[in-house]
Amino acid sequence: MTKQLITAADMEAIAVGGAYLGTGGGGDPYIGKLMARTAIEANGPVRVVQPEAVADDALCVPVFMMGAPTVMVEKLPRGDEALEALRQLERFLGRKADALICVEAGGLNSTIPFAVAAATGLPLIDGDGMGRAFPELQMVSFTMHDISATPLVHADDKGNSAIINAVSNLWTERLARVQAIQMGGASLVAAYPMTGAQMKAGILRGTLSLIKGIGETIAAERVAKRHPGVALREQFDGRHLFTGRVVDVDRATTGGFARGRAVLKGIDGFAGRTFEVAFQNEFLVARGDGGQVIASTPDLICALDADGGLPVTTEQLRYGLTVEFTGLPCDRQWRTAKGLELAGPGYFGYDHAYEPVEALNPAA
């Protein structure tokens, strides 16, 4: 990231870029942008540092939202829950955090760390744990590097908080998810406390720079009256999966997730064809005519409004909306045996084997 100090004005690009890379999940970009802007305007800009600039014995902590993104649209956070979770984790550990981490890309989870960094004066590390967004807490690169999610603290808008210690990151997900549901379907979290050395081994580098760049590309293409999808696919070796109009959405908030599917009728070059995308907070599988898989987790399925060119999240899908879907290759760690065990199609109960999006959709 060429600009090491992030101001309130930068949050528009970061929120939009995070929403695109968040594959339909990671929370509403508008809410996160407002939280970060308010904190930066009150406390000053946020320092973004490279992983190598952090001492090996530093305490690094991710802060994020856990729960169904649909909940956050209707039940706004109070604003200080993530900071309260961090403070309680620090008290439990008996030491202060030295740096903060963004756990995933997403409209909300890419911006919450900026709000907490501004409020605390702590630096934010240029990287994350996913390179996209995934629905479950254990689905991070840190798990692949044997970094424990606990102790975990989460807090809600009513002032409740809880500390969890668990035997595995999967058990942390199970226990924390139940509590998040009782907290109203979503909570703000501080978890995965790690040393600087552990962070350097496990983090996916450069994500914040990537997110900001994506947001700037989308803004520039819109100003030039071009749809941003073309430029983004060229930049990231993406594949144009399809463009379609939503004709049916089956969506429910259950078990702490927004689960469902959307059916779209193809338009423009895809006219006469029917497509389906399945999601659990994030878009997980896209299928074409006859049910054939055209993109699948852990690769990224990214959505832009076909008219306005802004990212579309799963909670924004509605009848009549025209959406352009792009498939992007995931970080190489997700294509390893460990990565596919954590977030491949088999984990979510799909019966198809994973194939890279570029193999399913050869370039013309």
UniProtKB/TrEMBL annotation:
Occurrences of domain S-Me-THD-like C-terminal (ranges): 168-357
Which InterPro entries does this entry report, sorted A to Z? S-Me-THD-like_C, S-Me-THD_C_sf, S-Me-THD_N, S-Me-THD_N_sf
Gene3D superfamilies, A to Z: CV3147-like, CV3147-like domain
Q: Can you give the residue ranges of the S-Me-THD N-terminal domain?
A: 10-165
A Pfam family assignment: S-Me-THD_N
**Signal peptide, first to last residue:** none
Record protein name field? DUF917 domain-containing protein
